[in-house]
Design a protein that fits this description.
CATH class of the largest domain in chain A: Mainly Beta
Radius of gyration of chain A: 34 Å
Oligomer: heterodimer
Strand content of chain A: 35-45%
Order of helices and strands of chain B: HHHHHHHHHHHHHHHHHH
CATH architecture of the largest domain in chain A: Beta Barrel
Structural class of chain A: mainly beta
Helix content of chain B: over 70%
Distance between the termini of chain B: 52 Å
Largest sheet of chain A: 5 strands, mixed, barrel
Number of helices of chain A: 6
Strand content of chain B: under 5%
Structural class of chain B: mainly alpha
CATH superfamily of the largest domain in chain A: Nucleic acid-binding proteins
Largest sheet of chain B: none
Strand order of the largest sheet of chain A: 2-3-4-6-5
Radius of gyration of chain B: 21 Å
Number of helices of chain B: 18
Number of domains of chain A: 6
Distance between the termini of chain A: 81 Å
Largest interface: A-B, 70 and 77 residues
Shape of chain A: elongated
Number of domains of chain B: 1
Chain lengths: 634, 441
């Protein structure tokens, strides 16, 4: 190599590196041929290479993937996913971010559009609604327990609203998940559990279902009509499940249409024609009202249409809604629409709304007891049937109707007679209850006060409204028409409750326990498993044994039993068990409060039989046992 | 300390030993090895616990952050005809003081590790707050960093041209090369992030061929072109350093390292550039110490952020890779990771002293062009294995871009345009427009 190519200027001797001209003295230094070749070659390679890549890249195929096949090595892959929008899009104006969930038959993934992309989607009105079929294209981001797809532009979203199938409400539960259906029904209840979400209970002659209306979202879809109980509506939405129960998710206002026509909810039946096969179905019966019996959660009558008699049960909630201060007298003729139930071998009809009862013939006016005397007795604790008639009012909200049967002229305010309670006798529960001891008082929730703290009471009938878990047990919010109270079940008690999985929102329970006060709130705390009894189950689907590979996100909230071998475990205060039953692997998450009640011997390769509730936590499907007894070592 | 933390710490020590092999190779990045480990873990699911995997990754990154000093000092002897600036490490090598350079950098690394562990109790409180404050501003901060990076490079012309235009072109030759590097690597980033050139099944290594091409291969090509030989190295039992100088070096390095660890797409080099300007460092020893601190705080700090309870910030290739398989949620694991960093770091420092002596012995006996050639084969093998022929094509183009700053006298960190440009454009909301102009939609 010539001397002048050593990197130093031959004229001034300073270091010049690969410069061809000395930057200090301007002398020509020269370069090795290989350096010069690489110098210009790199430029050509860089520019030409980038141009070639720009030409090739748009021709590269975007792979269509199934959500369930995404693995950690596919992090940052640019892919296309085809599926159904499983959750209504949400838009956060502060961050400018739009999210929605897409599901296919293998799983669910969250799709995210950031500022400009979200803005484009909103501006172009192509934000999909729940139930829409979409094809989305973007970069997959995968975390251990969560995955999402980031949209690169509005062009990466194609939306198609599938044709809905018209079905009866009773058939919705048989429809596949995420399919679009249209049902017609009558609004039976309206609830707004959160801002932007309205839950509408719909019924037709075939059954009942809840429709979730996402009223505040970024989806363009017209105004939401005003609803009220009794409205006839047509709803188009996606078949979905909430805690295991079917529901219809409605994403656009235009998918909810008010109808002029009346939709029949039940057919008229003779009482003699009713059988246990009718349990759960809604019927219309009419007849004479007799033998009213008040119990802690409402009033029971006998309804006689000449062909037979059936029990007519009015829960306190309905009694209050009707302003039915006490019972009506014998001789009134009512037309009742209600659900047939079987309570300890006896059929009963249970109306749900005030509009389910129509007075066809008012009862003859009895001699009235003074109101204050009745009120004085109202809260007395009794246990025998009422025997003396007292007067009560049915407000005008109980509509009088021109009846096919002979009627009396209906007065503006109807009065009825009912047997009254004998003074000083204990009040009855609906039927004689074996649980409460004679020393335990039966109360409605509203009748429980701070003065009862330390004492034991029985709440004969209350509905579970909410569940929350804490480190040592479970808290259930109990409600009846008179108020609400917390049912605190310590884990050791929960372990002994046989029907623990039936303790679920909308189920009815009878509870005996000590009244305690915690931070100003009253709680009823049972001491034994037998202190908590489920008197009516909720609409939760029944418990099933399932292979692990057949448990899907749509089963969230359901109770399954899985048997398999422990693959591995991970524990902190909680315990994670990965169970393989031969068909696949499922994560069993044992919460901290349950861990100490687990049987001994759980470890690698041990065979377990686990019952638990299906839950999805950060995108991972898991089974959560409620008690240590739900995990059996086999 | 529970069994999970013990697994983590134990496997971190194994990770350091593994990284000791690969970190000594010039131009070899530990994320390439980590990618291979990930694929193996996935194929043998269940054989390695997640904590052990996290510990292994921790050991690999700690080991690499400390030990990659060795190739940068010993396996890249400066051939004056191929480089524009002789870095202090190379200067020390040519002055027969390579071992001392490695020790100085190692001291900086050790300082960085201790600093990280000292910060560990505060990170769970501070990091989420800092993240919440800064996240909405990332786009303009990164844009400002990029502008500074490009504008702070001065013209290197001789100012001896006959006409103004010639002088102007001469002055702007290296600057233009730097800007061109940034632009081309940025376009390469757009292509990679908005297409499927790399198979979707190996997308977690999507940028690997680009990084191998931009940084790895140009280094070994430069080594292969080099005519220089390192002189026989001297070893001594002490280093020329005062405590004050060490503290200044660690402080400056930590500043740059923390900045780089927190901000996405900002590397240790960029962080060191900013910190260097901010603290006006001149001394070669100071430079070596701050480099040691900066790279450790950058690599290890970014990885540790993933473990910080309440934050779980994913920064850097290693954390990104691990997070796809395991998210460390519990505080116990966090403290296990901190303990693992201390143990693995101390182990790596001892290894550094030993391996630098071994390298000093080896460098005069083995032609490092041979080692560079072996590394080149390994790099190409990795690219082909993970990303196929398309990946090799990307690596080739990236090599062209990566050679431009090397041969035209600009900063190699301009190659970080591969991440900086797409991220800034995306976060400023211009992503769809730019990908549209480039025909990538």
């Amino acid at each position: 190599m010539p001397e002048q190519y050593s990197g130093k200027c031959p004229a001034c001797g300073r270091f010049v590196g690969p410069y061809a001209t000395c930057p200090y003295c301007g002398a020509e230094v020269g370069q090795r041929i290989s350096i010069r070749f690489f110098k210009y070659g790199s430029l050509v390679l860089a520019i030409a290479g980038v141009v070639i890549l720009l030409l090739i890249a748009p021709r590269s195929q975007v792979p269509v993937v199934q959500i369930g096949t995404l693995t950690g090595t596919m992090n940052f892959a640019y892919v296309r996913v085809h599926g159904v929008v499983a959750r209504q899009p949400t838009y956060d104006p502060d961050s400018g971010t739009l999210h929605f969930w897409v599901a296919d038959e293998t799983g669910e993934i969250m799709v995210t559009a950031y500022r400009s992309e979200a803005g484009d989607l909103l501006a172009q009105g192509i934000v999909p609604a729940v139930g829409d079929e979409v094809t989305v294209e973007g970069t997959v981001r995968i975390k251990e327990d969560f995955q999402y797809l980031v949209l690169h532009g509005a062009e990466g979203v194609a939306v198609r609203a599938p044709e809905p199938v018209a079905v009866a409400i009773g058939s919705v539960s048989a429809m596949p998940l995420y399919h679009k259906v249209t049902v017609q029904g009558v609004v039976r209840d309206l609830d707004t559990p959160a801002e932007g979400l309205c839950i509408v209970s719909l019924s037709d002659a075939s059954g009942d279902i809840k429709a979730a209306l996402y009223t505040a979202s970024a989806v363009w879809g017209g105004e939401w009509p005003e609803l009220e109980n009794g409205s006839s509506v047509q709803v188009t939405g996606m078949v979905d499940r909430y805690r295991g129960a079917p529901q219809i998710a409605v994403g656009r206002g235009s998918d909810l249409v008010l109808l002029d026509q009346e939709i029949p909810l039940a057919s008229e039946r003779s009482i003699a024609g009713l059988s246990t096969q009718d349990v759960g179905s809604r019927v219309i019966v009419q007849g004479n009202i007799s033998r009213p019996v008040r119990f802690s959660a409402g009033i029971r009558y006998e309804l006689d249409d000449g062909s037979g008699t059936i029990a007519l049960v009015l829960w306190q909630e309905l009694v209050d809604a009707l302003d039915l201060h006490e019972t009506v007298s014998e001789g009134a003729v009512w037309r009742v629409q209600g659900k047939v139930a079987d309570y300890r071998g006896r059929l009963e009809v249970i109306p749900e709304l005030p509009s389910d009862i129509r007075v066809l013939t008012a009862a003859p006016l009895p001699s009235a007891k003074p109101e204050d005397e009745f009120e004085a007795r109202r809260n007395e604790v009794k246990s025998t049937p009422l025997s003396r008639p007292v007067t009560a009012k049915i407000s005008a909200t109980v509509a009088a109707e021109a009846s096919p049967v002979p009627t009396a002229t209906a007065p503006p305010v109807r009065e009825a007679t009912t047997p009254a309670r004998p003074t000083g006798a204990p009040a009855p529960s609906r039927t004689p209850s074996p649980t409460p001891s004679p020393t335990v008082e039966i109360r409605t929730i509203g009748a429980i006060t701070a003065q009862d703290v330390g004492g034991r009471v029985t709440i004969d009938r209350a509905k579970i409204a909410d569940i929350s878990y804490f480190s040592k047990g479970v808290k259930y919010k109990l409600t009846d028409r008179t108020g609400e109270i917390l049912l605190l079940v310590w884990q050791d008690v929960l372990e002994k409750i046989e029907a623990r999985y039936d303790l679920y929102p909308n189920c009815w329970v009878q509870v005996t326990g000590e009244i305690q006060e915690y931070e100003g709130d009253l709680e009823i705390v049972p001491e034994r498993g037998s202190d908590v009894r489920v008197t009516a189950r909720s609409d939760r689907l029944p418990m099933e044994e399932r292979p692990a590979n057949q448990i899907t996100p749509s089963d969230e909230g359901r109770i399954f039993t899985v048997a398999g071998k422990v693959v591995r475990t991970e524990s902190r205060r909680w315990l994670k068990i990965w169970l393989n039953d031969g068909t696949g692997e499922i994560l069993i998450f044992v919460p901290e409060r349950v861990v100490e009640y687990l049987p001994a011997g759980i470890g690698g390769n041990v065979r377990l039989r686990v019952t638990g509730e299906v839950d999805i936590y950060q995108g991972i499907l898991e089974l959560i046992p409620l008690a240590g007894r739900d995990v059996e070592v086999q | 300390m529970n069994a999970e933390s013990l697994w983590l710490i134990g496997s971190a020590l194994i990770g350091v030993l593994v990284s000791a092999v690969f970190s000594c190779l010039p131009a070899f990045h530990i994320t390439n090895v980590a990618g291979l480990v990930m694929v193996w873990i996935l194929r043998t699911q269940g054989t390695v616990s997640q904590q052990a995997l996290a510990g292994l990754m921790l050991g690999l990154i700690v080991g690499y952050a400390v030990l990659n000093t060795i190739p940068s000092v010993f396996w890249g002897a400066p051939d004056e005809s191929t480089i524009f600036i002789v870095w202090p490490g190379q200067k020390y090598l040519m002055q027969k003081r390579g071992v001392e350079a490695a020790a100085l950098t190692g001291i900086g690394s050790l300082g960085g590790l201790f600093l990280l562990c000292a910060l560990a109790p505060f990170l769970p409180k501070v990091l989420p707050a800092v993240r919440a404050v800064l996240t909405p501003h990332l786009h303009w901060i990164l844009a400002a960093v990029t502008v500074f990076m490009l504008m702070s490079e001065w013209p290197k012309g001789s100012d001896r041209g006959r006409t103004g235009l010639v002088r102007f072109l001469d002055a702007w030759q290296s600057l233009g090369a730097g800007w061109l590097t940034f632009l081309l690597s940025g376009v390469l980033g757009f292509v990679l992030l908005n297409s499927n050139l790399i198979p979707a099944e190996m997308a977690f290594q999507k940028l690997m061929p680009a990084f191998v091409g931009l940084f790895g291969i140009p280094w070994v090509v430069q080594n292969l072109l080099s005519q220089a030989r390192a002189p026989k190295q001297e070893t001594s039992r002490s280093v020329d350093l005062t405590p004050a100088l060490a503290l200044r070096g660690v402080g400056a390095g930590a500043l740059g390292g923390l900045f780089a660890a927190f901000f996405p797409a900002v590397t240790g080099g960029i962080g060191a550039l900013l910190a260097g300007h901010a603290t006006a460092q001149r001394d070669d020893r100071l430079f070596l110490i701050s480099q040691g601190t900066s790279k450790v705080v950058y690599y290890v700090g970014a990885f540790l952020f993933l473990f910080v309870p309440g934050s779980h910030l994913t920064r850097g290739g290693m954390a990104g890779m691990l997070s796809a398989f395991y998210m460390p949620y519990s505080p116990t694991i966090y403290w296990g990771a901190v303990a693992g960093i201390l143990l693995a770091g101390s182990c790596a420092f001892v290894l550094l002293l030993w391996l630098s002596r071994a390298s000093a012995w080896l460098v005069t006996r083995v032609d490092y062009r041979c080692i560079s050639a072996i590394t080149l084969v390994l790099l190409v093998g990795f690219v082909l294995t993970f990303t196929g022929w398309a990946g090799l094509l990307v690596a080739m183009v990236a090599t062209g871009i990566g050679l431009v700053p090397v041969l035209w006298g600009s900063r190699r960190m301009n190659c970080m345009g591969v991440l900086l440009l797409p991220l800034i454009v995306q976060w400023t909301g211009l992503g769809p427009s730019v990908t549209g102009w480039l025909g990538l939609q």
